[in-house]
Specification:
Number of strands: 2
Order of helices and strands: HHEE
Radius of gyration: 18 Å
Largest sheet: 2 strands, antiparallel
Helix content: 55-70%
Strand order of the largest sheet: 1-2
Length: 80
Amino acid sequence: MSGKPIAEMSFEEAMTELEAIVAKLENAAAPLDESLDLYERGEALRKRCDERLKDAELRVRKIVAGADGAAKGAEPFDAE
């Protein structure tokens, strides 16, 4: 696992570490106390990823190109 503070991680860094934690927990490859620590870090990483995705969504809402290629006002973002 990375020693980098979660608040400084990019989305990709946080997601990579989160995937590694999930794999380790799924394989029961860690003792109970370590598993609890991993779970806590995983939850913090999940929150970081969620924050970064929300930030990206807001940026996409701000930049919506019109038919002529010029940027126009924001439109609602529908993830579904």
